[in-house]
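Dear colleague,

Thank you for sharing your sequence with our group. We've completed the structure prediction you requested, and as agreed, I am returning the results in plain text so they can be pasted directly into your records. Please verify that the sequence below matches your submission; if there's any discrepancy, let me know and we will rerun it promptly.
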Amino acid sequence: MNTLGKIFRWTLIGCLGIAGLLLTSWLVTSALGIGVDLRFALPGIEAATRQALGRTLTVGNSILYPGLWPMVELRKVRIANPPALPQGRLLEIDRLRAEFDLFALVRGGIRIGELSAQGIRATLLRNTEGEANWMFSPRASERARDAAQPAKGVKPMPPIELRDLSLEDLSLDWRDEQSGRSFDLELEQISGAGRSGEPLRMVASGTFRRQHLTLTLETESLRRLLAMDGTWPLRLDATLGGSNLVLAGTLDPTPAQRSFALDTRWHGRSLRELAAMADRSLPEIGGYDIAARITGGENMLRISSLDAKLGELRVSGDLALDLAGPRPRLQGALEAERFDTQRFQAIRANGPSIPPTSEQGPREDESGLSRKNRRMLDLDLDL
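Please find the predicted structure tokens below.
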């Protein structure tokens, strides 16, 4: 018995000593900011990503900084294009850092203290066959397996909190080979926070088509956003050059609803200046100020309480677009105080205007719609 007691006592002392040594090492590395190289785990992570998404993920290096709020830092993160698209990458990040609460993870929650990234470059590409590099889909075998499994109860979303979001030096290059269109978006910074139970708020600034861009977004809590739960409040305030857009209302993303109701105001100093950023040409009619309530759901869009000022022209009324039938149907009533047709005849795409001939296709009328296109839309408007 005495021998067994000694063995038990020294075993317990040894276990406590090892635990104490590990805890001391953890506290020392945390206090000194010493990182632990996680490069040994990268091959498994990259292989799992490739198996799940069919994409090649590469990470240059990864470091864990221990502590009660451990931080993981990844460098040179790269997600390649799918094999069907040209060689290149969908996303590249120079540095990504995430700090999380260890005790919250033990309790089943997700509490992120800091999520930051620098040097983010994204390329969105759609080829001539309509394949896009941003579309992720599971393999056919996995879809068949999931379809064969009976539906299970949905687990509740764990508590999620994001204290600080900071993204710096972002660039987006969008190219559509089907239409030949492309644009570049440069953002200096995106910052935000989504504390537990509080609305998510984000602020961004940058440039688009050489015009200064600022954007403020406020919506539902991060937990409800990820859970796709119920109706979300939404407020968006965006300024691009001399144009300002404000949206305020609600969204319902649930499959049973998928609807929205937004009060909208859009005003600026020059409609022609705004159209030029979209590669369109408009006559110089001066400033514009458009207010309306926009509601929509599946196969339906309504614009009510429309009050639009376009230079000297003022238009009011209501419109409804129904997409449920064999052809789209636009109906409503509009009232204009004055309308100068000569000032609106220049609405066309940029570039030289060539009168159509019989070899070039059907002749267009003054509205810019060919007879064939007019038959594709039912109109019922009171003017």
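Summary note from our side: DSSP finds seven helices and 19 strands in the chain.

Kind regards,
the structure core
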